[in-house]
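cron nightly-structures :: item 1 of 1
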Amino acid sequence: MELWRRNFREKKSLKLDELALKVYDRIDQSWQTSPTFNQNLVYRVTTSQDGAIGNFEPPNQPAKDYSQETPLPNLLKSSETSSSNSAAPVAKFTVVFAPTGTLEVNP
């Protein structure tokens, strides 16, 4: 039974890693602006199984103030307009935009 649980956790972790990579690629390809912010912007992002952005939450004031410098609002709009059967939220990630232009996507 323990082996089954470990295999299940490993498969679940692998799927989450694959989805994180999809989300990373989607955001990274859309991030075209040079940052004017001077600290990391952190967002909680909900995604569907195909990596589409379903929702994002800026947890602090700098993230709210500079959200237009990220691709998240546009990615959210494009996800809302495309009709997809896979639009149900399946995962939450922490997305970090650094002033150096670095992007991080973490489960």
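cron nightly-structures :: done
Strands lie at 41-48, 53-57, 89-97, 103-106.
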